[in-house]
UniProtKB/TrEMBL annotation:
Region (Disordered): 18-63
Protein species of origin: Zea mays (Maize)
PANTHER family: ACETYL-COA CARBOXYLASE 2, ACETYL-COA CARBOXYLASE, ISOFORM A
Record-linked InterPro entries: ACCA, AcCoA_carboxyl_beta, ATP-grasp, ATP_grasp_subdomain_1, BC-like_N, Biotin_carboxylation_dom, ClpP/crotonase-like_dom_sf, COA_CT_C
Protein name: Acetyl-CoA carboxylase2
GO terms of molecular function: acetyl-CoA carboxylase activity; ATP binding; metal ion binding
Coiled coil segments of this chain: none
Cofactors required: biotin
């Protein structure tokens, strides 16, 4: 519990909310309002029209209380609440019913702000970034009450006040009707819809909206309800709110029965004999996504495969659906005949789920281990419990600690659980932390073996493809690392996450084939029916542009470097697309690229092209500090295609003028025509020469058109793009993987050092200035000078990995910062008078060795 308020990233402080009652969801209540009947006397606000001042008597009373307390305790200035429901309406409490809530008077309680400052100091002392001072408890019943009591006890022991961390509960009408314990313990609560948990505690959208609305630092989902929904931690993390629980990756890893069993085997955790016991997968291959081939080997797909697997693991056995739960998709079998009879039932109960077979442990006990993890990789086993008393596979009684097994067995069980949790990274997500770079299983310097023929298949370019002989042809990114997102939506754009040499990245690519969009029937129209509409590849439509913008937003929030395999011809221009917001979606792409804070690479792949408005959207000038543009040698990049360019720049008149300047025969014919005109030649001679000129022009026009197109094609190359400065470099397709791996490592190293410099100097010191300073340090420490030495990516990464190369420069920056702060202190006489007190506080925070060293340094300066 001590990790609760330490080093988690969080949002701003929770504004204290008024104690007003509403009937709609999302209303803030006082926890004390349930323990006493509401005062039904009404105090109407006098409007300005009636001669009043527009302020209710109750509010005047509130203001007078604040004024009376101002001289006793330090009250903050009164600010409008986030949930303001008065609007000149009735106050259900009446003017004499003062707002009280567990010691809080009119939105403030004694010592609350002092406690918040203690939490901030406690967090800073342990190296945390932002303290957790308010938590939305997205659970009810025993889980919520136990959590709140634990927080109260820990806060009181740590800060001397059980109210140091504010707890906000969610309450359904059913909870309020029984005066639930967790509501009475909480500082505040919000009313949410009743009914099934899909309406409240399991509603991810509602939880996120409530957390944002209340401005809480963190959300605790407990167990059950939404706590095992991987969408909740992802959305909360994207909103800058701490999720007190495991990240989505861990939920996905252990949420699948087959996948979790394979991961357990790879982590050295004992498992029962099952259909996947023979499958050996390295742990590194399991963490992102278990290889599909290995996954299939662990499953059974037919009745006879299930029979054969049961014979291997032994009877009695269990036929289980991987997606099942709560007793669904599970059958016990004792012989082959029962397998043949019950296998189809398992398939029918959980349609589409993978199925596996596991040995049934007869006369066994159901023992569980409870784990507590933090964001630093520490995993503690908080004892164990016996859950053997069950009805229809559902636990009824949990007894702890375990007493039915020898202590050595329980210890081994706890150690195995800790190994499994560590293997899948079962810790809270760390916002703003370093990228989780893993050891690459796919060599970063291998060539890209997939070669596009006519068009570039985006998925093959990303993760490779098997050829006709079954040989794997590698793509740009690590094998089996690509996980596609939004797969069924806007299929003309491919988005997902992959790894490049073990470094996680976000990827956006373009579908080159024509895709079919399914438009479902409108249930409000009887004559409506489902339609299939073709969507051309390499074109942004409203949905695919929105998908691109959303992917950029998600990758940026996750801190992922970005790769865009740009292969667009432009935006769709139909009237319907304009009505559906194609221009707005395009501008959102530009805005999300402008604000992208991670390294971003735009690469026009082999057989790719970038045309029209697509250039405007992904141009590196949108965000020159972050975006770098590259192109493959065969890529095309003019705004217009050569044929279109000729239609504008070399029309028929320009081509005829060019013929007249270059073709000797036309030159002679035009000279003869001029001589005949000046010599008053006969009309038949003039007409004959003109016909000859027309015939020659008609004969040369196709040839000169081809020459003009070829001339335009020479300007439509990657070399020309590099010469014009619209791309940074031409990168051959086969070498693109190794090049971008080195470049990505370089950019990440630059970003880490630049962030450290800006943290010292301040945000006014731009990223560009930080990079200029880094370049100055690097070149000063190297034998080479100029751009040649600066462009060596491997050399820079090696230089960055040795802190002694720049440690002295960093220390000088820190000294300059302190000097400026002290100089500013000397300019203010009042601040200078308080300097001794501040120095005393600083010395108190130091340990004895630091204090002695500091005093010696000060003496040197004074002497």
């Amino acid at each position: 519990m001590s990790q609760l308020g330490l080093a988690a990233a969080a949002s701003k402080a929770l504004p204290l909310l008024p104690n007003r009652q509403r009937s709609s969801a999302g209303t803030t209540f006082s926890s004390s309002s349930l323990s006493r009947p509401l005062n039904r006397r009404k105090s109407r606000t006098r409007s300005l029209r009636d001669g009043g001042d527009g302020v209710s008597d109750a509010k005047k009373h509130s203001q007078s209380v604040r004024q009376g307390l101002a001289g006793i305790i330090d009250l903050p200035s009164e600010a409008p609440s986030e949930v303001d429901i008065s609007h000149g309406s009735e106050d259900p409490r009446g003017p004499t019913d003062s707002y009280q809530m567990n010691g809080i008077i009119n939105e403030t309680h004694n010592g609350r702000h002092a406690s918040v400052s203690k939490v901030v100091e406690f967090c800073a002392a342990l190296g945390g970034k932002t303290p957790i001072h308010s938590i939305l408890v997205a659970n009810n019943g025993m889980a919520a009450a136990k959590f709140m009591r634990s927080v109260r006890t820990w806060a009181n022991d740590t800060f001397g006040s059980e109210k140091a961390i504010q707890l906000i509960a969610m309450a359904t009408p059913e909870d309020m009707r029984i005066n639930a314990e967790h509501i009475r313990i909480a500082d505040q609560f919000v009313e949410v819809p009743g009914g099934t948990n899909n309406n409240n505690y399991a509603n991810v959208q509602l939880i996120v909206e409530m957390a944002q609305k209340l401005g809480v630092s963190a959300v605790w989902p407990g167990w059950g309800h939404a706590s095992e929904n991987p969408e909740l931690p992802d959305v909360l993390t994207a909103k800058g709110i701490v999720f007190l629980g495991p990240p989505a990756s861990s939920m996905n890893a252990l949420g699948d029965k087959v996948g979790s069993a394979l991961i357990a085997q790879a982590a050295g955790v004992p498992t029962l004999a099952w259909s996947g016991s023979h499958v050996e997968v390295p742990l590194e291959c399991c963490l992102d996504a278990i290889p599909e081939e290995m996954y299939r080997k662990a499953c059974v797909t037919t009745t006879e495969e299930a029979v054969a697997s049961c014979q291997v693991v032994g009877y009695p056995a269990m036929i289980k659906a991987s997606w099942g739960g709560g007793g669904k998709g599970i059958r016990k079998v004792h012989n082959d005949d029962e397998v043949r009879a019950l296998f189809k039932q398992v398939q029918g109960e959980v349609p589409g789920s993978p199925i596996f077979v596991m040995r049934l442990a007869s006369q066994s006990r159901h023992l569980e281990v409870q784990l507590l993890c933090d964001q630093y990789g520490n995993v503690a086993a908080l004892h164990s419990r016996d859950c053997s008393v069950q009805r229809r596979h559902q636990k009824i009684i949990e007894e702890g600690p375990v007493t039915v097994a020898p202590r050595e067995t329980v210890k081994a069980l706890e150690q195995a659980a800790r190994r499994l949790a560590k293997a899948v990274g079962y810790v809270p997500a760390n916002i703003g932390g370093p990228l989780p770079i893993t050891k690459p299983l796919d060599p970063p310097d291998r060539p890209v073996a997939y070669i596009p023929e006519n068009t570039c298949d985006p998925r093959a370019a990303i993760c490779g493809v098997d050829d006709s002989q079954g040989k794997w042809l590698g793509g740009m990114f690590d094998k089996d690392s690509f996980v596609e997102t939004f797969e069924g939506w806007a299929k003309t754009v491919v988005t997902g996450r992959a790894k490049l040499g073990g470094i996680p990245v976000g990827v956006i690519a373009v579908e080159t084939q024509t895709m079919m969009q399914i438009i479902p029937a409108d249930p409000g129209q009887l004559d409506s029916h489902e339609r299939s509409v073709p969507r051309a590849g390499q074109v942004w439509f409203p949905d695919s542009a929105t998908k691109t913008a959303q992917a950029l937003l998600d990758f940026n929030r996750e801190g992922l470097p970005l790769f865009i395999l740009a292969n667009w011809r432009g935006f769709s221009g139909g009237q319907r697309d304009l009505f559906e917001g194609i221009l707005q979606a395009g501008s959102t792409i530009v805005e999300n690229l402008r604000t992208y804070n991670q390294p971003a690479f735009v690469y026009i792949p082999m057989a790719g092209e970038l045309r029209g408005g697509a250039w405007v959207v992904v141009d590196s000038k949108i965000n020159p500090d972050r975006i770098e543009c590259y192109a493959e040698r065969t890529a095309k990049g003019n705004v217009l295609e050569p044929q279109g360019l000729i239609e504008i720049k070399f029309r028929s008149e320009e081509l005829q003028d060019c013929m007249g300047r270059l073709d000797p025969e036309l030159i002679n014919l035009k000279a003869k025509l001029q001589d005949v005109n000046h010599g008053n030649g006969s009309l038949p001679d003039i007409e004959g020469i003109r016909k000859s000129i027309e015939a020659r022009t008609k004969q040369l026009l196709p040839l000169y058109t081809q020459i003009a197109i070829r001339f335009a094609e020479l300007h439509d190359t990657s070399l020309r793009m590099a010469a014009k400065g619209v791309i940074k470099k031409v990168v051959d397709w086969e070498e693109s993987r190794s090049f971008f791996y080195k470049r990505l490592r370089r950019r990440i190293a630059e970003d880490v050092l630049a962030k450290e410099i800006r943290q010292i100097v301040g945000d006014k010191f731009t990223h560009q200035l930080a990079m200029e300073l880094i370049k100055e340090w690097y070149l000063a420490s190297q034998a080479t000078t100029g751009s040649t030495g600066w462009d060596d990516d491997d050399a820079f990464v090696a230089w960055k990995d040795s802190p002694e190369n720049y440690k002295g420069h960093i220390q000088k920056l820190r000294a300059q910062k302190v000097s400026h702060s002290l100089s500013d202190l000397a300019d203010s006489s009042s601040d200078l008078q308080a300097f001794s007190q501040g120095l005393s506080t600083l010395l108190d925070k130091m340990d004895p060795s630091q204090r002695a060293k500091f005093v010696q340094e000060v003496k040197k300066v004074l002497d």
